[in-house]
Structures are given as C-alpha cells and as structure tokens.
Specification:
Layout: H1 2-39, E1 42-51, E2 54-63, E3 66-71, E4 74-78, E5 82-87, E6 92-97, E7 120-127, E8 131-138, E9 146-152, E10 157-165, E11 168-179, E12 200-203
C-alpha cells in the first residue's frame, strides 16, 4: 500500500510540474502576442462576431490610444479620451469616458491583446505545431469573465478571441490584421457632430 501511495504521489507531482510548465509557456506566448501588438502603432483588423447562430462582420482601426469601430451600421469613434457610439437605428449617439481597464475588443480594442498587467492566470488548453489556444482566467471579478485566445505560433498572431460570461459565449474571429503604414488620417477617429445633426446625443461623462 505504501508503494502504491508513493507511486500516486510521484505521478501527481509530475503532472503538477507539467501543468506549471504549460502555464509558463502560455504566459510566454501571451507576452509575445502583447509585445507584437504594442509594436504596431497603427493597425486595422477585420473580424466576425459570432454569437449562437448569428454572425456579424466588423472592422476596427487603432492609432495609439485612438480607435474607430464599425459593426454592421453602428460606429464607434474614440479620440483617446472619449468614446462616441453611434446607433443609426435609434438615431442616438452615446458619449462616455474610455474604460482604460477594459480588454474587450468591442469596447476598447487598444487593449484587446494586452494581457501582461497581472490581471489574469494563464492556461494552455490546446496546442500543436502551428497554433495554440490559451485560457485566461481573471484573478478578480471581471466583467469579461473567462477569455480564450486562439493564436498562430510563428509568427505570433491572434486568430480569434472568445469571451465566456454568465453562461454565454461571444467569439470574435480575426479575419485579417494589417499594420497601417505611411501617414494615417486621424480624422477617422474623430466624431464630427455636424454629420449627426438629427441624432440625439446622450453624454454620460
């Protein structure tokens, strides 16, 4: 019996070491991804939002702390300080301060892949020679819940994000990610109220 217990203890110890090594690899890969995204000052992404049977195409562009998002007919402009969400269906523009702590690609794409600030635990849940899926569990209560990051290993590049919260899953498939070179027209990130004179503006700042 003592030999059996000793054998089980040895196996469990080995499994713990393997799990820790996998978590360390996951953290290292997430670090590379975050570094890669931060190295691009200006970039644009086309994506697909998948929720149940519904799929919606979208696009966003980032320049430093500024961004522009387009999903279906809705648009979001962010000048780095304020966020202007345009809803054509309701003829309404909602203005709010930027949530700098958010990692949600749909509310703050500038930090969508920035996971190295100590807010998450990392676990590699699937991997092969070309791709990896990493599970990010928040260390404290987080409105995003659990995040799954699918990524290409070499060169490091995100291919999808999935947010699991309160029994629901929203997946963001990354269709393309390209660095914008040359002079970037920063007017694309600026909300011009003259273009929305018939809209009601609701300011929560």
């Amino acid at each position: 019996m003592k030999r059996v217990i000793a054998l089980i203890s040895t196996v469990l110890c080995a499994m713990n070491v393997m799990a820790q090594n996998g978590n360390d690899d996951a953290k290292a890969l997430i670090g590379k991804l975050s570094e890669q995204m931060r190295s691009m000052e200006n970039y644009e992404v086309s994506f697909t939002v998948v929720s149940g049977e519904q799929k919606v195409k979208g696009y966003y562009a980032v320049s430093g702390e500024k961004y522009y998002i387009s999903i279906d007919d809705a648009e979001v402009f962010c000048d780095g300080g304020a966020r202007y969400e345009v809803n054509p269906a309701n003829k309404e523009v909602t203005v709010d301060a930027v949530d700098t702590k958010s990692h949600n690609i749909l509310t703050n794409p500038t930090r969508a892949f920035d996971f190295v600030d100590g807010d998450f635990n990392f676990e590699m849940v699937a991997t092969n020679a070309t791709s990896t899926t990493i599970k990010l569990t928040p260390k404290e209560n987080n409105a995003l819940g659990i995040i799954f990051v699918d990524m290409q290993r070499e060169p490091v590049k995100p291919t999808a994000l999935a947010y699991e919260y309160d029994g629901q899953t929203i997946k963001i498939e990354i269709n393309s990610l390209d660095e914008m070179t040359g002079m970037v027209d920063i007017s694309m990130f600026t909300f011009d109220k003259n273009n929305y004179r018939s809209y009601e503006i609701v300011d929560f700042r």
